[in-house]
Design brief:
heterodimer; A: 125 residues; alpha/beta; 5-stranded parallel β-sheet; 5 helices; B: 577 residues; Beta-Lactamase; 5-stranded antiparallel β-sheet; 5-stranded mixed β-sheet; 11 helices; 16 strands; 18% strand; disordered N terminus
Chain lengths: 125, 577
């Protein structure tokens, strides 16, 4: 079975680095970026299976990014990452087609569980 | 941009929820009490006083009239009696002078007979005499020996020759006892005329006048045109002395004047001149106080006024005291309600902040969690243990993130504590940095540019940190709510000429409509439908006032809003609550 390709998007660089390394250790093919714009650029050249997306970011926010992703790669699953799980943001994100959401601080097991179920829905796999 | 925002057209109106500067001041309540007592007393006592005075005057007028009316009647009657007395005797003399010839009248025996007849039928006659036109008395009947006397120089003699009839004043004359005379002049052509004269008994006259007296303590007498007594008054003085009353003009009608009696008590004086004589009949009323009714009524009036005034004053003092007590109680309730609201506003602000802060805290917590997890992963899952350098790097990141958490929680705690005013030296620049710290992240997420001209000189004031934090948090929060994402908020501190500090916060947001600007500091005024309590700016206004400062606002729709908070640079100006 091929490794799940995941992209971690969060403005906290240290969080991104740690998550990427931990996921790689667990057999994922993880990559990280620290801004919404960067994520869209990356996705344009690197196909992914799941994106873990922080909702609140300076510049292009999570909700704008998910909107763009869903219009350009409709089958790409997006999991939202929120600091507070502010109901409004999560609702909006889910309405825009997010697969699920996780609240910081997250357990690596939860991330893996959600990624795996998101990955298993991908018809291309 | 500054110039585009017009001055607020109306100063902050309404009644901001402020504790007021002198809520607890005893002198304020004392002033309130006395103002109440004075104003209500004047309002209540003035009509009572006016009513009492009017009543007093009316009763007094009625009593005086009651005194005067009978006087007028008696004077009218008396005048008639005296005139009748004089007329009867003048007519008798006239009749005799016509009925008898000049020659017959010159006969002493006939003259004595006439005297007897007159005394018998009229009374009051003392003597009779016939005086020739040259003034020589040629015949006399009476008790004295006056034959041959010359009257040519006597005033009454001159007058009777001119007027035909005369009633003289009382005078001493040749007999050196008070008397008056009635004389008639008769032409006797072809020879010279003659004067027929009678002397009238003043005692008889006195008795007549005294019978007119009717009021106890009153007096009655006759005076001549010069104010000389013609009869003996009861009170003081004697015949031919000056009467103890002011000069009276001649009047055929009865006249009334008020005079000061010898005892200083005002009395009514009624007088009328006696026709065909130099006499004026004068009647003095009795002592008005002798009328016990008036004195009693006056006393009752005064007692009524006094008792009413005392009762009114008592009620007014009690009422004022009660009202002030109620005002004090209401102030207390208001102050505590205000405190509660201030606290709630703070908690609401805190709630709003903590939503953002939770996100902010969770970021470093997530980093700690993931870095610690990674460290464990590297130790457990990796074949080769992580290098010391790698471990330190991860630990540093954990420590840094933990410190970030600490900073955030401290800031929150710093905001939540001290609800009571505590004055300390505060650098406004640092305080604003602190407040902006809460909003930094939100500004980042929303791309709101915050420009703070940090002052070159430290802007140190004596004030309360917690309250100032709340004030600026409220105002800057409002600015955040007003601007679109990507908007701009500018802040600065300027020193006024008076040495105060003005902190201005300006945004390029939606602005406030003019009609809202007037009510912006009113309690419960909110345009954030459902989202605000409407207390934020009202409490802000109250707090700034309490700290001795002032808030003003300028705004233009679509251009932006500028709040200016002026705080006293001189610590003494800050008012302790």
């Amino acid at each position: 079975m091929e490794a799940l390709r995941v992209l971690i998007v969060d403005d906290e660089e240290e969080l991104v680095t740690a998550l990427v390394e931990r996921l790689n250790l667990r057999g994922y093919q993880a990559h990280g970026v620290t801004a919404g714009e960067e994520a869209l650029t990356f996705l344009g050249t690197h196909p992914c299976d799941v994106v873990l997306l922080d909702v609140k970011m300076p510049g292009l926010g999570g909700l704008e990014v998910i909107e763009e992703i869903k219009s350009r790669w409709p089958t790409l699953e997006v999991v939202l990452l929120t600091g507070h799980g502010s109901a409004r943001d999560v609702e909006d994100g889910m309405a825009l087609g997010a697969f699920d959401f996780l609240t910081k601080p997250v357990k690596i097991e939860d991330v893996m569980r959600v990624f795996d179920s998101a990955g298993s829905t991908d018809p291309s796999r | 941009m500054l110039d585009l925002i017009p001055e607020s057209p109306v100063p902050p109106g309404g009644a901001p929820l402020t504790e007021g500067d002198t809520l607890n001041s005893k002198s304020r309540y004392r002033r309130m009490f006395w103002a109440g007592v004075l104003s209500i007393s004047v309002l209540a006592l003035a009509p009572l006083g006016i009513m009492t005075w009017v009543n007093y005057q009316e009763y007094k007028g009625a009593f005086e009239e009651e005194q005067t009316r009978p006087l007028i009647r008696f004077v009218a009657i008396g005048k008639q009696s005296v005139e009748d007395f004089l007329e009867a005797r003048t007519a008798a003399l006239g009749y005799v002078s016509l009925a008898r010839t000049h020659v017959a009248l010159g006969d002493p025996a006939i003259l004595a007979g006439i005297l007897r007849d007159l005394q018998g039928s009229f009374g009051g006659f003392i003597d009779l005499s016939l005086i020739e036109a040259n003034g020589t008395q040629v015949a006399y009947a009476g008790p004295l020996e006056l034959e041959g006397e010359d009257y040519s120089d006597f005033p009454w003699f001159q007058e009777v020759k001119r007027t035909g009839t005369v009633v003289s004043e009382v005078f001493l004359g040749l007999r050196y006892s008070p008397h008056f005379i009635i004389a008639v002049y008769r032409e006797d052509p072809p020879g010279p005329g003659y004067v027929f004269r009678a002397t009238i008994d003043t005692e008889y006259f006195n008795r007549l006048v005294r019978t007119l007296l009717h009021q106890p303590g009153g007096d009655v007498f006759l005076i001549d045109e010069g104010g000389i007594l013609q009869t003996t008054p009861l009170s003081a003085g004697g015949v031919l002395e000056r009467a103890p009353i002011p000069p009276l003009p001649v009047s055929a009608q009865t006249e009334t004047v008020s005079v000061q009696g010898a005892d200083g008590v005002p009395r009514e004086l009624v007088y009328a001149s006696i026709a065909g004589s130099p006499f004026t009949l004068v009647m003095l009323g009795g002592d008005p106080d002798s009328g016990a009714g008036w004195a009693a009524l006056r006393r009752n009036l005064l007692i009524f006024f006094g008792l009413s005034a005392v009762m009114i004053l008592a009620v007014v003092i009690w009422g004022s005291n009660w009202a002030v007590k109620r005002a004090r109680e209401a102030d207390r309730v208001r102050a505590s309600a205000y405190h509660r609201m201030e606290y709630q506003n703070k908690m609401a602000a805190l709630g709003r902040l903590s939503a953002g802060v939770a996100h902010e805290v969770n970021n470093p917590v997530a980093i700690i969690s993931q870095n610690a997890g990674l460290m464990k992963d590297l130790l457990v899952m990796s074949d080769t243990p992580p290098s010391e350098e790698r471990q330190l790097e991860l630990l540093d990141s954990i420590i840094k993130s933990a410190e970030r958490c600490g900073g955030i929680t401290h800031r929150l705690l710093g905001f939540a504590k001290h609800m009571h005013v505590r004055t300390e030296t505060i650098d406004l620049g640092e305080l604003l940095e602190e407040v902006l710290g809460f909003l930094e992240k939100e500004a980042g997420y929303r791309d709101v540019r915050i420009e703070f001209d940090f002052p070159q000189e430290p802007a140190a004031i004596e004030s309360d940190r917690g309250q100032l934090q709340q004030v600026f948090l409220n105002i800057i929060n409002n600015a955040f709510a007003a601007v679109e994402d990507g908007g701009e908020i500018r802040l600065g501190i300027t020193r006024t000429d008076a040495g105060d500090f003005s902190v201005w916060v300006q945004d390029n947001g939606v602005g406030i409509p003019e009609e809202h600007l007037k009510r912006i500091f009113d309690p419960f005024f909110s345009t954030k439908k459902g989202a605000g309590t409407g207390l934020g700016l009202s409490i802000t206004y109250g707090m700034v006032q309490k700290l001795g400062g002032d808030v003003s606002v300028r705004s233009r729709e679509g251009v932006g809003t500028r709040f200016v908070v002026t705080l006293p640079g001189n610590p003494k100006e800050a008012q302790e609550p």
